[in-house]
Amino acid sequence: MYYNLRDRYWWSGMKKDITVYVCKSWTCLKVKAEHQSPSGLLQQPEIPKWKWEGITMDFVTKLPRTSSGMTCAPFKDLYGRKCRSLIMWAEVREGQLIGSELVHESTEKISQIKDRLKAAHDRQKSYVDKRRKPLELCVSDYFLLKVSPLNGVVRFEKKGKLAPRFVGPFEIIEKVGPVAYRLDLPEELNGVYDTFHMSNLKKCLADPTLQVPLDEIQVDAKLNFVEEPVEILE
C-alpha cells in the first residue's frame, strides 16, 4: 500500500501511519499472509518408565450406517470361544542366563533405550525450536483462526484462491495445554473441534473505526472519487 500511495501523496510519518492502518485493518488481517516464525515450542511426550505405563488409543466414531449395520463381531462374540490358531513349532535351545544376570541385563538395556530416546527427543526439539518462538496467549482475548484451503472449503465455506486466510475473531475461553487453547466457536461451527494449536491463531488487532462503508463511496464513470463538502468549519 505504501508503494502505491507514495507516488501521489506524502505527509509526515506517512509510512508509519500506513503500517498501523494495515495492522489494524479488518480486511488486511484476514487476507494478508504471515511471514513470521510459527508460535509455540515443540512439546515432546514424556518417556515412560515401564511398559504399558502410557497407552495411546485412536477412536474412530460417527461412521455412517451401512446396509449391514455398523456393529463389529469379533471371533469370540460370534462363535463363543477363542480363535485356535495353528501351532508354530520351533526348536529352542536351553539358556544359561538366569537369576540376577537376567535382571542386570534387562535393566542395562532399558537404561540404554531411555538414554537414546532422550537424546533423540532433545535433538529433534533443538531443530524445531530454531524456527519457532515462545509465546503466551491470554484467556478472554480475541484471535483469528488460520484455515487451510481444504478446511476453508469444507468447514468454513470460503472458496477461491482469494478467500481469507483467517476467520473469526473468536474468544479464547480456556488454556488446554502448554500450546493448545479452546475457542468459543459460534453455533454454525459446531462440527469443528474447538481446540487449536497456538500456531494457528493470530491476535486480532482490528479497529472497527478504520472500516469505511462502501455505500458512502461515490465513483464516476472514469473510476474517479467524487468528493462532496460535508460541513464548513469557521
Automatic annotation (TrEMBL):
A GO molecular-function annotation:
RNA-directed DNA polymerase activity
Which top-level group of life is the source organism from? Eukaryota
Q: Which InterPro entries match?
A: Integrase_H2C2, SH3_Tf2-1
Q: Does the record bear Plastid in its keywords?
A: no
What Pfam families does the entry give?
Integrase_H2C2, SH3_Tf2-1
- Name all Tf2-1-like SH3-like domain ranges: 141-204
Identify the keywords attached in UniProt to this record, alphabetized: Nucleotidyltransferase, RNA-directed DNA polymerase, Transferase
Q: Where are the transmembrane segments?
A: none
- Residue span, Integrase zinc-binding domain: 1-33
Q: Does the keyword Nucleotidyltransferase apply?
A: yes
**PANTHER family cross-referenced by the UniProt entry:** CHROMO DOMAIN-CONTAINING PROTEIN, NUCLEOTIDYLTRANSFERASE, RIBONUCLEASE H
Protein name stated in the entry: Putative reverse transcriptase domain-containing protein
Source organism of the structure: Tanacetum cinerariifolium
